[in-house]
Amino acid sequence: MRRVIVRLGRQRSYAVTVGRGALASLVAALAPMEPSRIMLIADARLEHKAEQLARQVRRAGWKTREVSITAGDRAKDLHRAYALYSELIAHEMDRSSVILALGGGVVGDLAGFVAGTYLRGIRWVGLPSTLIAQVDSSVGGKTGVNHALGKNLIGVFHQPSAVLCDTDLLGTLDRRDRVSGFAEMVKVGLACDGAYFRSLVQNAEAVMALESDALTSAIARGVQLKARVVAKDERETTGERAILNFGHTVGHALEAVSRFRLRHGEALVVGMRVAAALSVVRGCLKQSAFEEIDRFLQTLRVDARATPSQLMPYIRRDKKSERGRVRFVLLSDIGSAVRDDGVTRSDLAEAFRKLGMKA
Fold this sequence. Notes:
Layout: E1 2-6, E2 14-19, H1 26-30, E3 37-43, H2 47-59, E4 63-69, H3 78-90, E5 98-103, H4 105-117, E6 123-128, H5 131-137, E7 142-147, E8 150-157, E9 162-166, H6 175-192, H7 194-202, H8 204-208, H9 212-232, H10 248-257, H11 264-281, H12 287-298, H13 308-316, E10 328-333, E11 336-340, H14 345-354
Helix pairs in contact: 3-4, 5-6, 5-9, 6-7, 6-9, 6-11, 10-11, 10-13, 11-12, 11-14
């Protein structure tokens, strides 16, 4: 078991616990919070685990209510949030109550958003059940719901009080979900720590096979690195947190072009390949470093094709675009990211040609 502290100031810092059986420590994590009541919001596919956890917290003496939701982006909207507010009111949840979020990124985003807006903010605890949620959304406090005109357009920063990443929950993930979560770890390595990236290259087979020691170490280190970045720029006001968007500009556009048939992490793999190629085109990154990166990303076997003309309308609408300029996060080296506001369509076309893709 590994424990990482996300340091955000005296009253907002929290612990992320990673490893097999982490959920067994749920009561111990809740005890210092002294919750008046608890609401467990869970992915409907985890009903059995939700029932186990509810019994566990009830035995500790807390009044607990369970709510199941069908995960998926269609569930992540204001209509579902309104329904959850009604459940919270019916359960007489007050400012001393705690929400538990058991599920993947959709459940965490929705439950965290509801926690951040109900009674102007109550506490919540993340219990992420997918690899991408354990690696990515377990740190940072970004919560939100979708609007008909775009994903995650309505949201708040609302940090959890604790996160328990139980790797036993990952056993049923298919290869696509494993690749999706692994891609987020690779992103953190490429943007923040070259040694971490190379350790992922070396241990990729073990991590993807969910071997306990390799998996726990990889998740914990990724969480630790992301926590350091978030601590410097919690609300994305200084620009330092922007490095965690490496690969996302093209990745988000690819998700949209695919009509979200691609998982986020799959699109991110291609987005990172394009961003690495762009880094060479823009004179930031050495060719040898690009080749090392691209060679490894290709082993993840994600096939997603689109042209710059298909992607540009979505790239211009990306949240990272400001005042009409397209902002990319590129690499100056493996483990070192830089921001570039000057990428043109011709640069993007050249990067695609560099990857052997149709421009």
